[in-house]
Each structure stands twice: as structure tokens, then as C-alpha cells.
């Protein structure tokens, strides 16, 4: 048997969650909240079930949900996507990314990805028969390096995959950076695949730079997001894609034979709940509070903090710890931290194709305050 993905094994998220469970560690590894979504959203699911919304919805998604998504994007970013032709509900962002790539990228094409990057990107590109061209974000600051991106463009470049707010580094692109990307792509026909799953987790008064705010990018762009992050329901696996009609027509050709459609009751519940803007408008303050308390607690350890402008991830450097610990490769450090300190983390090396070690680890702060406090106590005691 010849594997389609010979280099792929079990994801680091699954591995670290299993190790955390085995050692009774506080799991700050895999990104998911340890608290539930809004009770009104849970009630809306029960209402949808009772109302008999239990058969196939339309292929592109429940119309009321597509309308709510379009209305939200228009209100926040000023671009009017047509819910009939330009919005599709997906089984989370992971399916949306794979489907977009299978629909729009041809065998032999190149797709630029910016490292460190989310682990599903390259396998999705490989399954399309294309090649991922890796361009590093600037070392230490993790900002887009436009000279390096420009140098990576070839006649085969079909798309660039961007992610802001950025997993794992928490970087948030600025308006000027989006404009620079638009200027760089203007003379080309390169598509933009924009992973915006952390769109509502942006701190210190910054504005999420959706491609929907930038017409030159939106016109060649596929906007991808996920309700799992925004509403604390990562297990629901419901997300969406917004794109101009011509791109969306191709997306839907693949989507209808990939999942055909996404579960009906959750879509009705999300449509009803989304009419209230407060839950997502309050999200930055909610997570910024957690970020600030977590960072203040980490300041009492030997870990050095990297900036966190967005997402629910805080990256740390362990270069300042005792020499025998600081010398560990990132995977070994995260295993040691899980086993010996009782706190699970994710090595940043897992987000690089060459697995490079920079003495960085990612900690997820989408946790109840008492969970974060328990983790901080352990970290302060040992580090
Ligand atoms: N992209 C990024 C950057 C993510 O962090 C995640 C979730 N870990 C996803 C995509 C996948 O989202 P979903 O769970 O909706 O498939
Ligand atoms: N996106 C989550 C993270 O970065 C993990 C999702 C998964 O387990 N695949 O932690």
C-alpha cells in the first residue's frame, strides 16, 4: 500500500491530550475551552430538535444561518456577500480548508503557507496533488515577510494561505500588512485562502483584519471561519466559507460530494443565536481578561512570554530555565512538562515542516480561571 500522506502520523494535539490524560496533567495543549457554550445556545439546539429540524438541509446550509453570516460580515467588515451564492456552511474550518483547496488548486500548483502554520494545511495541499511552498514569518516577531513571500511566487503559485489571528503565535495582522499583501498580489491571479477562525479573539482594541474589509483581497479570496471557536463549541464542527460566486460555485461542487451538507439542528440553533451580536462582541474582553491574568501568573515563573495579540494561545520561551531543561528539544520539553510538572503544552516545532527547535511552547488559556490557576501553581512550583 502506497500512502497518500506518507509523512503524516497522529496529530500533536491528539498525542498531547492523551499524554495529559495519562499523567493527570492540566491540559493547556490542544486548543479547546474547558467550559460550555451559552445556555441559550444549548436551548436553541433542543428547540431545533423539538421543532423537527432533523432532515437534510439545503446543500449550502440552512438559509437563515447563511443570511445571519452574511449580515454579520456586512455589519463588521462592510462587504455584502450574497447568502444564496457566496456563503456555504461547512463541517468546521478543517473541512472548509480541505474542500477549498481541492476545489481551487490543481495538481502541480504551488500554495504558499507561512510558517509556523496549522497542521492541516500541508496535507490538504498534498491531497490536491499540489506542493506547499513554505515561507517563514519573521523570526521572533512572527510577522509576514513580504520580500520573502514575493521571492516565493512562481508562475505555478495558485494560492496563499494566511491565518490571522494566528495559531500558534497569537499574531494579528495589521491593516497595513493586509494592504501590502493586496499590493503584492495585484499583478497576479493568486487566490487568498484566509483562515479567520479566531476572528473574534483580538485584544488591546485592535481590529480583526478580515479579507472582507479589503476588496482587492476579498475578490480573490475565500474567507474561512468556525463557530467552534466563537461559541465555545469546538465539538460541534460547524463553520462557514464566504467567497465570490465564481469561486463558491467551484467550492460547492466539491462540498456536495465531500459532506453534501452539515447537520441541521446545530445550523438552526446557530442561526437563532447569531441574531444577538453581544456574545461575539463581548468575546475580546472575555478572553483578554483571561490572557492578562494568565500572563501575570506566568510572570512568576522562569518562562519568558511572547506577545499575544489574539487567539487563545500564549507562547512561551523556556530558554531561561535550568540548562538541562532549556537544552531539551520542544517535543521533549512538552512531554517533560506534562509528566513532571503536570501541565500539557504544544511544541511550536509541530507547526514547522522541518520541526525546528526554538525553545518555544504554546499554552491554551481558553480555560476556567480555576483551571488556569491550578496550572500556574504547578508552573510556579517547578519552573
Ligand atoms: N484553523 C486553525 C488555525 C485552527 O486553530 C483550527 C482549530 N484548531 C482550525 C482551523 C480548525 O477548526 P475546526 O475545528 O472548525 O475544524
Ligand atoms: N485547532 C486546535 C489547536 O490548535 C486543535 C484541533 C485539533 O485537535 N485538530 O490546538
UniProtKB/TrEMBL annotation:
<dbReference type="GO" id="GO:0030170">
    <property type="term" value="F:pyridoxal phosphate binding"/>
</dbReference>
<feature type="domain" description="Aminotransferase class I/classII large">
    <location>
        <begin position="26"/>
        <end position="379"/>
    </location>
</feature>
<dbReference type="GO" id="GO:0016212">
    <property type="term" value="F:kynurenine-oxoglutarate transaminase activity"/>
</dbReference>
<dbReference type="InterPro" id="IPR015422">
    <property type="entry name" value="PyrdxlP-dep_Trfase_small"/>
</dbReference>
<dbReference type="InterPro" id="IPR015421">
    <property type="entry name" value="PyrdxlP-dep_Trfase_major"/>
</dbReference>
<dbReference type="InterPro" id="IPR015424">
    <property type="entry name" value="PyrdxlP-dep_Trfase"/>
</dbReference>
<keyword id="KW-0663">Pyridoxal phosphate</keyword>
<keyword id="KW-0032">Aminotransferase</keyword>
<dbReference type="Pfam" id="PF00155">
    <property type="entry name" value="Aminotran_1_2"/>
</dbReference>
<comment type="similarity">
    <text>Belongs to the class-I pyridoxal-phosphate-dependent aminotransferase family.</text>
</comment>
<dbReference type="GO" id="GO:0005737">
    <property type="term" value="C:cytoplasm"/>
</dbReference>
<protein>
    <submittedName>
        <fullName>Class I/II aminotransferase</fullName>
    </submittedName>
</protein>
<keyword id="KW-0808">Transferase</keyword>
<dbReference type="InterPro" id="IPR004839">
    <property type="entry name" value="Aminotransferase_I/II_large"/>
</dbReference>
<dbReference type="InterPro" id="IPR051326">
    <property type="entry name" value="Kynurenine-oxoglutarate_AT"/>
</dbReference>
